[in-house]
C-alpha cells in the first residue's frame, strides 16, 4: 500500500532516502490569496555535496540494474503517485494557482508519461557485422543527472526529467523552483520508499541552489526548463565542467490561420490555447496570424468566445480557465505589458485588466488588434493572458514573419487544405509544428526548441538518448594467439 501524504508537513530535503532538515526554512505563497504556505528547506552547499555523494555511490548499482527492474520500480512509483493524486492536485493548485481541472490534466499527463517511459528501452544497434567483427552503437547512462524545474508545470516537468533519467540508468537530483517546491518535495518523499538510496533525491532552496548545481563537478548532466535568459547562464556555467545540458526554454509560438478554415471549429482551441494556465506555458499560441479575408470575423468571434468562456478567478472556483499569475515578479512583468497598451497606442479588441484588485495576482485576458510587428507584445513572450492578432495576405510573407524571432519552440498552421498546410508547416522553424492543432505533446515524441528556445530534446527515444553517452563498441571475433 502506498503511503498517504501529509501535504502540510515538509520535514526536510530528501537525501539518500532520509529526510534531511536544514537550519533555515522558507515558504512560498498561494498566488490566489497571497497567504503563506508551508515551511520548506533552504538547501546549503554541504547538503548538495551529500546528495551528490549519495547519487554517485548509487549510480554504481543502479546503472547496472536490469531495465526490467528499473521499469518495475518506476511503475511502482507511478502507482504511489496515483494513490495520492487528489492531495497532490489540490496542492498543485494551491502553490501554482492553476485551475483544479488543469492540475488534474497535469497529473494525468505525469502518470501516463512515467508509464510510457517505463516501456522505452534504448536498444543497441548493430552498425556493421562481418566475419571478423561486429560494431554496435550502445548507450550507457551518463551518471548523476540534475533536473532544474520551472514553476509553471512542477509535476509534469519534474517527472518528465526523472523518468527518462532513471530508466536509462542514471541517478537523479531534482531542484524545484523556489516558487513551487511543494509537489516536487512530495514526489521525492514518495520516491524514498521505492528506489534504492541515492537514486532519487529532491533538494529545495533559494536562488543559490541552481548555480551550485550547474557548477558542481560531481554532477554529469543538467536538464533545465526555464527562461531563455536563465538558460544562457546555465549553459555558460555547465561549460566550465563540460557538463552535458539539455535546455528547454521560452517560446513565442505563431499560429497561422488560413482563409479557408471553419472559424467556429478552430477558434475555441486557438483561443483557449492563448490563455490556458494564464498564458504561462512555453508553447501557447502567442502570435495569431489571421488571413485578412477572415480577420474581422475571427477577431470578433474570438472576443465573444473569450468573454463567454475564459473565466478568470481562483483555481478552486468552478469553470475558471485563467487562474492567478503565479508570482509577484511575473505579475509585475505582465502588468508592465498591459501598461504598454496605452503608452504604445495598441488597439484592443478586448481590454483586459491587470490590477491588484484582489489579494491574488489576477489578470483578465486581453486581445490586441493588429499591433505593429515590432511591438513588445509580438516580439516578446508575455507569459500572461494577453495575445496579439495579426493580419496576413501573402504566404511567403507570413512564414517570414512567423520565423523572424530568435525563438522556435512551437508553431501551427490551420487550414482545410492539408497539402498546403503541410507545405507551410515544413517551412516553420520550430521544434514542434502542428497542422490544425497546437500544443500536442506525447512522452514518445521528442520535444524541444530551435534557435534560442533550447538545445537538445526531451522525451521520445531521442530525448532519452540525451541521458546517455553514445558509445561505439567494436568486438573483433578473431582471437589473438
Ligand atoms: P526561470 O528561468 O526563472 O527558472 C527556472 C528554474 O531555474 C527554477 O528552478 C529556478 O530556480 C532555476 N534558476 C534560476 N536561476 C538559475 C541559475 N542561474 N542557474 C541555475 N538555475 C537557476 O524560469 P521560470 O520563470 O521558472 O519559468 C518560466 C520560463 O520557462 C518561461 O520563459 C517559459 O517559456 C519557460 N518554459 C519552457 C518550457 C519548455 O519546455 N521549453 C516549459 C516550461 C517553461
TrEMBL record:
The keyword rRNA-binding does not apply. Pfam families: Aldedh (PF00171). Gene3D superfamilies: Aldehyde Dehydrogenase, Chain A, domain 1, Aldehyde Dehydrogenase, Chain A, domain 2. GO terms for molecular function: aldehyde dehydrogenase (NAD+) activity. Its EC number is 1.2.1.3. Keywords: Oxidoreductase. The active site is at residue 248. It catalyses: an aldehyde + NAD(+) + H2O = a carboxylate + NADH + 2 H(+). PROSITE patterns: ALDEHYDE_DEHYDR_GLU. Belongs to the aldehyde dehydrogenase family. This is aldehyde dehydrogenase (NAD(+)).
Amino acid at each position: 500500500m502506498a503511503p498517504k501524504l501529509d501535504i502540510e508537513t515538509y520535514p526536510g530535503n530528501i537525501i539518500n532516502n532520509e529526510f534531511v532538515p536544514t537550519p533555515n526554512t522558507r515558504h512560498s505563497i498561494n498566488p490566489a490569496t497571497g497567504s503563506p504556505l508551508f515551511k520548506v528547506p533552504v538547501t546549503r552547499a554541504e547538503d548538495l555535496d551529500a546528495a551528490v555523494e549519495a547519487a554517485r555511490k548509487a549510480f554504481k548499482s543502479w546503472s547496472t540494474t536490469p531495465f526490467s527492474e528499473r521499469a518495475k520500480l518506476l511503475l511502482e512509483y507511478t502507482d504511489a503517485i496515483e494513490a495520492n493524486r487528489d492531495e497532490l492536485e489540490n496542492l498543485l493548485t494551491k502553490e501554482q494557482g492553476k485551475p483544479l481541472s488543469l492540475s488534474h490534466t497535469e497529473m494525468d499527463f505525469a502518470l501516463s508519461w512515467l508509464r510510457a517511459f517505463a516501456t522505452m528501452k534504448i536498444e543497441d544497434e548493430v552498425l556493421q557485422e562481418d566475419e571478423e567483427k561486429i560494431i554496435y552503437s550502445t548507450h550507457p547512462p551518463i551518471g548523476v543527472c540534475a533536473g532544474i524545474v520551472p514553476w509553471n508545470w512542477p509535476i509534469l516537468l519534474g517527472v518528465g526529467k526523472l523518468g527518462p533519467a532513471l530508466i536509462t540508468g542514471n541517478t537523479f537530483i531534482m531542484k524545484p523552483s523556489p516558487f513551487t517546491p511543494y509537489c516536487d518535495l512530495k514526489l521525492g518523499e514518495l520516491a524514498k520508499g521505492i528506489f534504492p538510496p541515492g537514486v532519487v533525491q529532491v533538494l529545495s532552496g533559494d536562488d543559490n541552489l541552481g548555480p551550485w548545481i550547474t557548477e558542481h563537478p560531481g554532477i554529469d548532466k543538467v536538464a533545465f526548463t526555464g527562461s531563455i535568459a536563465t538558460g544562457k547562464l546555465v549553459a555558460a556555467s555547465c561549460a566550465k565542467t563540460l557538463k552535458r545540458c539539455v535546455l528547454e526554454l521560452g517560446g513565442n509560438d505563431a499560429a497561422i490561420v488560413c482563409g479557408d478554415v471553419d472559424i467556429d471549429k478552430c477558434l475555441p482551441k486557438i483561443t483557449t490555447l492563448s490563455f490556458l494556465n494564464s498564458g504561462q506555458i512555453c508553447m501557447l499560441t502567442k502570435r495569431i496570424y489571421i488571413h485578412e479575408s477572415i480577420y474581422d470575423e475571427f477577431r470578433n468571434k474570438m472576443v465573444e468566445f473569450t468573454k463567454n468562456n475564459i473565466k478568470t478567478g481562483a483555481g478552486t472556483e468552478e469553470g475558471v480557465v485563467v487562474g492567478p499569475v503565479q508570482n509577484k515578479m511575473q505579475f509585475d512583468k505582465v502588468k508592465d505589458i498591459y501598461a504598454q497598451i496605452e503608452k504604445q497606442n495598441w488597439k484592443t479588441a478586448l481590454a483586459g485588466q491587470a490590477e491588484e484588485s484582489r489579494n491574488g495576482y489576477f489578470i483578465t485576458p486581453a486581445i490586441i488588434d493588429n499591433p505593429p510587428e515590432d511591438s513588445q507584445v509580438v516580439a516578446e513572450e508575455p507569459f500572461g493572458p494577453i495575445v496579439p492578432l495579426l493580419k496576413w495576405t501573402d504566404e511567403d510573407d507570413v512564414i517570414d514573419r512567423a520565423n523572424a524571432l530568435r525563438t522556435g519552440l512551437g508553431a501551427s498552421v490551420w487550414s482545410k487544405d492539408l497539402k498546403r498546410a503541410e507545405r507551410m508547416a515544413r517551412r516553420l522553424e520550430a521544434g514542434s509544428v502542428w497542422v490544425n492543432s497546437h500544443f500536442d505533446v506525447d512522452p514518445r515524441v521528442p520535444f524541444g526548441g530551435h534557435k534560442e528556445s533550447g538545445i537538445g530534446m526531451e522525451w521520445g527515444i531521442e530525448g532519452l538518448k540525451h541521458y546517455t553517452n553514445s558509445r561505439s563498441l567494436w568486438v573483433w571475433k578473431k582471437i589473438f594467439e
